[in-house]
Design a protein that fits this description.
alpha+beta; YaeB-like fold; four-stranded mixed β-sheet; RelE/ParE_toxin
């Protein structure tokens, strides 16, 4: 069991992904309650993972990457993050049916 404390950091790109997703669900799909639940669930899943973010299987990407990416599945979406020293850096929120390697 890992005892290291991690700090949480969000990339602006993740924040934009989340805003666009919530906007789409709220205004295009006309389901503001679902949008709010998704935002709450994303936050809860990230905070839960913060205690031990590197204890999970890394994402196997078709691209060679400098850092290992990890995933959190939340309904039809995937949160991608990396570990950099004592930081869990949340990078993207991507719809599961998209070409992940292309958008990551």
């Amino acid at each position: 069991m890992e005892n290291k404390k991690y700090r949480l950091q969000y990339l602006p790109l993740f924040e934009q992904d989340l805003i666009e997703t919530v906007h789409h669900i709220t205004y295009v799909l006309k389901n503001p309650d679902a949008a709010l639940r998704l935002a709450d669930d994303v936050e809860a899943a990230i905070l839960e993972r913060l205690s031990n973010p590197l204890a999970f299987e890394p994402f196997r990407s078709a691209k060679e990457r400098e850092l290992l990416y990890y995933r959190i599945y939340i309904r039809n979406y995937v949160v991608f993050y990396v570990g950099i020293d004592d930081v869990m850096e949340v990078r993207r929120l991507i719809y599961r049916k998209r070409d992940i390697d292309r958008h990551l």
